[in-house]
Amino acid sequence: MPNQGDPVQPDSPAPHPTQGRPWGLEWRSSVWFVTLVVGFGIAVDVWVYNMIVPVIPFRLNTLGYKHVASKTSLLLFTYSLGLVLSIPPIVWLSEHFGGSRKSIILYGQAFLAGSQVLFMFAPNYGVMILSRILQGISGSVIWTLGLALLCDTVPERRIGQQLGMAMAGLSIGFVAYHPSFALGPPLGGILYDNFGFHAPFILGIALAVADFVGRVLIIERKVSVQWGVDPWGPHQPSQSLEEPSHSAFEMSITESVTQSPRIDQHVGDTSSLKPTSVNVGPLETERPRTLSSWGVLWALMRSSRAMVAVVNTLICGTVFTPKNLQLTLRLHHAWGLSPLKVGLVYIAAAIPTMVAGGISGFLTDRFGPKYIATLSLGLSTPWLMLLILRSHLALFIIALALFMFFLSGVIAPMTTELAATSRGLPGVGYGHVFGAWMLAYSLGSTLGPIIGGPIYDHVRHGWLVLCIMQTCLVILALTLSLMFTGDTAMTHKFGPASSSTKTLIR
């Protein structure tokens, strides 16, 4: 007789709850729940990052500091610094220490709440800087490992759709609190005016705690399958590792899977377990971790598909961020709109981006990342060029909405492409590729304002120059996507490869 605390034993009927069986196992390990939690975490991180922006100058004035603008900019920069510097060690911990991504994510959530408490009670500027660095570290964990955890949970045929839905949190975070409100009555400012300096941080801590609870409730797939519950679906037939898949996404990775069969490193010893009556799909697995950090970097650099996905992410971050930051000035100078009206314009234009990821992800799973990435970039270009015109405000809003909609549609195919590439590179896991994605997007978000601000302020017809420069970057991304993305890319590799790994690093 099996012990009550043991997983489901051989030849048993469908598993029944026992003393050791986690409660709510089905919904806590489900694809929809993990997607919801990951998307909510992304939205919380973006929202908390922006929420305190209008509060910082007032706090610095209260503490008696001068040169408030410069000190505020440095506080914003230290977040990016913490994020960029923490990505490599976080990825290394995730990929080299088996265990659970969830455990590291919980530490990241604790850092997010702790950073808010630290900033709220900061007695001086140095403590403020430390709190922003901690928040950057938490952001790298929430994004990188959150997306990796989602890919661990989601069936390969649905990765694009679920990644797109989770990344909708990015749009929700910006819409809930957009920089265009920085000169008007943002929620953070309203809380500050009516309830004092601590109020915005208390709300941020509450959101971080809610996200923490959601992460605690998640049950990873490697745990749920031991109890006979597979988020890939109980009725999905077990698929041989050598059997080709039918979706465009799965077809792009079939060759690499057959050449490098995967062995799960995290499930533990299950030799004593026999199959349950629940028919589960193949476990998400990891390649043997034989690559050093430099080896992983070299493997990614040798893969044209991975490098193009990273470069296109860098371009999208560079194009998207200054467009947001300069939007207030453009609408004010061209049509005389107040900051509050500018915020309403942005919200009206950004709402469609909330569904862009889900739509492009669904299409990516159906047709492959190459076609959807190329189509999204191509369709965003004419609307970006229309933003140059200073005619009717309604036309500008429509053009802005369509530009943001199609550019947001690039994220799902790019992240899906990275997920597919990681399966074809032995020793490279989801944490590695999403760490590279997060690093690229962060650098783009940093470079965008650095380049866009001076161009708009100091170059004659700065908005025109900025739009032309961004259009050229989008066309470059379009060209790279057309040439290198997907298994049908025109060119498969940058450097030479052995015959046994040609398909792995193309």
UniProtKB/TrEMBL annotation:
Family matches, as Gene3D superfamilies: MFS general substrate transporter like domains
Transmembrane parts of this sequence: 31-52, 72-92, 129-151, 163-183, 195-218, 306-323, 343-364, 395-416, 428-451, 463-484
CDD domains for the chain: MFS_MdtG_SLC18_like
Locations listed in the record: Membrane
InterPro entries: MFS (IPR011701), MFS_dom (IPR020846), MFS_trans_sf (IPR036259), MFS_Vesicular_Transporter (IPR050930)
Pfam families hit by this protein: MFS_1
PROSITE patterns, per the entry: MFS
One cellular component term from this protein's GO annotations in UniProt: membrane
GO molecular function: transmembrane transporter activity
Domain of life: Eukaryota
Membrane topology of the entry: Multi-pass membrane protein
Keywords assigned: Membrane, Transmembrane, Transmembrane helix, Transport
Residues of the Major facilitator superfamily (MFS) profile domain: 31-489
Protein name in UniProt: Major facilitator superfamily (MFS) profile domain-containing protein
Species whose genome carries this gene: Hydnum rufescens UP504
